[in-house]
Design a protein that fits this description.
Number of helices: 9
Shape: elongated
Distance between the termini: 73 Å
Oligomer: single chain
Length: 368
């Protein structure tokens, strides 16, 4: 018809024997894809860039996208390699006895900044390698809670909470490891250091005997020091839970009043002075359908009764980690010597000054 005859776009190149080969655009793209799949991003760029320069037509503009993808992939690969190099340097510090503390601090920061980067196994001992049983983590999924006293509803990110309160035997491990002799665990705030020194750098005896009963007569300052020590030993971000986290772990998704449901049941917790002292932390650890079970929806035990538990935050701000401000620290959970079952409800909150030591006060750890 006299119109222009279009031919497929071609690219010429010389083979290994000097012969000239003609590549159609689909073949060029196939070769670029193969290089991308092999992770040879420089190869993609080196192969396509001169072809694109020699073929300015709109049809060949598809190579611009391929070159852009290769450059982005190369940058991402370089970032990943830089992160691996950074992590290797941090782990070298962790394995160095004199630099271990600094390395662990950097590892915490690295984990917070890059939570999906895997940490090689075996770098740190597990909590269960350090503390006597019973100990286990209960994963808590993301959700939200409504706090009482008009504080409103708060989102809670996923975290882990200890299945049980810290026991006498577990806290004794901290003491035996020099927990009251090592200033590092008390250096998180001037007030904590003052408390530590004012108490003669000594703990107070727990209120009740028994290796597997909750540690009592332990202040907020001491609870935080224990968490700092355990975090150092394990490389995990171990801490006291925020009250929003504590309540989420106790209530689950349905906002229940008590860990087992919405109706108070004296057979599911140690409260109202029926027993007259603390009980082993496993006493109410039964499958949820068992009428003796005090287990929360996420598997935590003793979140109603036994001991009131310290939370990280002050009573002024439920979602703030700030160890350097004064004020009461929130407690949740009720205790064995309570006389009002309302105190055992998961949303019920009260507070004590952080240096208080009582035979109804204890704590459990969390991690994120």
């Amino acid at each position: 018809s006299g119109g222009e005859v279009l031919t497929p776009p071609l690219h010429m190149e010389r083979g290994s024997g000097g012969e000239v080969k003609l590549l159609k655009l689909p073949a060029v793209l196939d070769r670029a894809d193969a290089l991308m799949d092999a992770g040879d991003f420089d190869g993609v760029i080196d192969f396509l860039t001169p072809i694109r320069a020699a073929n300015p037509g709109a049809l060949w503009a598809v190579l611009d996208e391929q070159i852009g993808d290769a450059r982005a992939a190369r940058e991402n690969s370089e970032i990943k390699q830089a992160l691996h190099d950074e992590l290797d340097g941090i782990l070298a510090l962790v394995s160095h006895s004199r630099r271990r503390e600094r390395g662990i601090a950097l590892l915490h920061d690295f984990r917070r900044a890059h939570p999906t980067m895997p940490i090689p196994p075996g770098i740190f001992p597990a909590v269960t390698d350090i503390l006597l049983p019973p100990f286990a983590w209960c994963p808590v999924t993301a959700g939200s809670v409504t706090l009482e006293d008009g504080d409103g509803r708060f989102d809670v990110a996923a975290f882990q909470i200890a299945k049980y309160p810290i026991t006498n035997a577990q806290y004794q491990t901290f003491i035996d490891a020099g927990g009251y002799a090592d200033a590092r665990w008390w250096a998180y705030s001037p007030d904590a250091q003052k408390f530590w020194e004012a108490q003669g750098k000594q703990p107070e005896a727990t209120g009740f005997d028994g290796d597997d009963t909750p540690r009592t007569n332990v202040s907020w300052y001491e609870s935080v020091a224990f968490c700092h020590w355990l975090a150092f030993e394990t490389g995990l971000n171990i801490r006291l839970p925020l009250e929003t986290e504590w309540q989420r772990a106790a209530q689950g998704d349905d906002g229940r009043a008590y860990p087992w449901g919405n109706t108070y049941d004296p057979n599911r917790c140690n409260a109202e002075q029926r027993i007259g002292r603390t009980t082993p932390v496993t006493k109410y650890d039964f499958p949820p359908k068992d009428k003796r079970s005090g287990v929360s929806p996420f598997g935590a035990v003793d979140m109603a009764g036994n001991v009131r538990e310290w939370c990280a935050n002050t009573d002024k701000n439920p979602i703030e980690y700030n160890y350097n401000i004064s004020g009461k620290r929130v407690l949740h959970g009720g205790s064995w010597n309570g006389t009002n079952t309302d105190y055992l409800r998961a949303p019920f909150r009260n507070g004590n000054t952080p240096g208080d030591r009582y035979y109804g006060l204890g704590f459990r750890c969390s991690a994120s």
